[in-house]
Specification:
This protein has a single domain, classed as Na+/H+ antiporter like domain (Na+/H+ antiporter like fold, Up-down Bundle), CATH 1.20.1530. About 70% of the residues lie in helices and about 5% in strands. It has a two-stranded antiparallel sheet with strand order 1-2. The longest helix has about 35 residues. The protein is globular, with a radius of gyration of 21 Å. The relative contact order is 0.17.
Length: about 400
């Protein structure tokens, strides 16, 4: 493929990715708003009953494998599909996208690292005296790519394409960081037997890849088994989605891409069903009795501070230092003021922040869950509004 054709191919796929993510971001926002309204209405009880609807996974008529309420199915199984998509995106970017070479990946990688460390440190400093609250240090680490890209697309030509690509790469890298944090720090007691069974499933996935199996169905079937064993092992089962995705071949050797095919097929389901359902199930929080004092408590303050200040300072500071040292350049046709606005936008951390929070405060007092949701909603909202104002008023580089 000629360089010009390759550029057009990459540009077309990036544009399709951004368009689908931004449309999904609008629906995600609406789902969160509906959950917030319903939770503060006379239908609050019905909302809670809906989330607690039982669901069962049976093998035949007599073997009951799992029995969980709806919200657990959404957070454990549906979100595993989301993480499967994230895994596909990470693999594609590493092999042929913006992260395919060290030169391309260096700026967003360093920016993402700063954007993970600083928010975690801010949160930990604010919650140092609360052992339970301190468990949530990972909550403000990740950017919500759907929300953030949705805002950038709505701003249109005020933001150069290079900054949209930069934001996408940063969000994908800190999604990978969040996955590692979940695996290492938010794992319960482990079952060696189930871990061995899950490992056997991973070996089968690798075998399918080595045998150049290009059909998606065998990977999905084995991946579902890995998901079950990982769930039973004590590790959060969504990680099975990432492992399964990494086994999907990029090319079938005939000019086709099983990975891209799976990614494009899943995007509508994730953007228009799975993530909105996750938002509806997890964003509902009662605002009754909420005051400025409530928002000033350590958990919501740490989350909001980590998202609004930590992400912006971490992403911008790490990037500025790298650029000043000559290790990278400012994204093409972007001014420093536009770049700062996009760094502030990285503080929109809705989906992954809520998800990590549910793991961090599992089994804790229900008060922590409410504070988690308030902090995430406040920090993401303030980051989105501040970034929009900054980008609308920033100096635009001449094209």
């Amino acid at each position: 493929m000629a360089p010009t054709q390759m550029f057009k191919f990459i540009a077309r796929n990036v544009n399709q990715f951004i368009t689908s993510q931004s449309a999904g971001g609008v629906l995600l926002a609406l789902a969160a708003l509906v959950a917030l309204v319903v939770s503060n209405s006379p239908w609050h009880g019905a909302y809670q009953q809906f989330l607690q609807m039982p669901g069962e996974l049976r093998l035949g008529s007599s073997w009951l494998l799992l029995s969980k309420p709806l919200i657990v199915w959404v957070n454990d199984l549906w979100m595993a599909v989301f993480f499967f998509l994230v895994g596909l995106e990470i693999k594609r970017e590493l092999l042929e996208g913006e992260l395919a070479s060290p030169a391309q990946a260096l700026l967003p990688a360093i920016a993402a690292l700063g954007g993970m460390l600083v928010p975690a440190l801010i949160y930990a400093a604010i919650n140092w005296g609360d052992p339970v609250g301190l468990r949530g240090w990972g909550i403000p680490m990740a950017t919500d790519i759907a929300f953030a890209l949705g805002i950038l697309v709505l701003l249109g030509s005020r933001v150069p394409p290079s900054l949209k690509v930069f934001l996408t790469a940063v969000a994908i890298i800190d999604d990978l960081g969040a996955i590692l944090v979940i695996a290492v720090f938010y794992t319960a007691e482990l079952s060696p037997t189930m871990l061995l069974a899950a490992a056997a499933g991973v070996v089968v996935l690798l075998g399918l890849n080595r045998l150049r199996v290009t059909a998606i169905a065998p990977y999905a079937i084995v991946g579902l088994g890995v998901w079950f064993f990982v769930l039973k092992s004590g590790i959060h089962p969504t990680l099975a989605g990432v492992v399964t995705a990494l086994a999907i071949p990029l090319s079938d050797g005939k000019g086709g891409s099983p990975l891209n095919k799976a990614e494009h097929a899943l995007h509508p389901w994730v953007a228009y069903l799975i993530l909105p359902m996750f938002a509806f199930a997890n964003a509902g929080v009662s605002l009754q009795g909420v005051t400025l004092g409530t928002l000033a408590q350590s958990v919501p303050l740490g989350i909001a501070g980590g998202l609004l200040l930590g992400k912006a300072i971490g992403v911008f500071g790490a990037s500025w230092l790298l650029i000043r040292l000559g290790g990278a350049r400012l994204p093409t046709q972007a001014s420093w003021s536009q770049f700062w606005g996009v760094c502030v936008l990285c503080g929109v951390g809705f989906t992954m922040s809520l998800f990590i929070g549910t793991l961090a405060f599992a089994g804790a007092d229900a008060l922590y869950e409410s504070q988690l949701k308030l902090g995430v909603l406040l920090g993401s909202l303030l980051s989105g509004v501040a970034a929009t104002v900054l980008l609308l008023t920033s100096r635009v580089e001449k094209q």
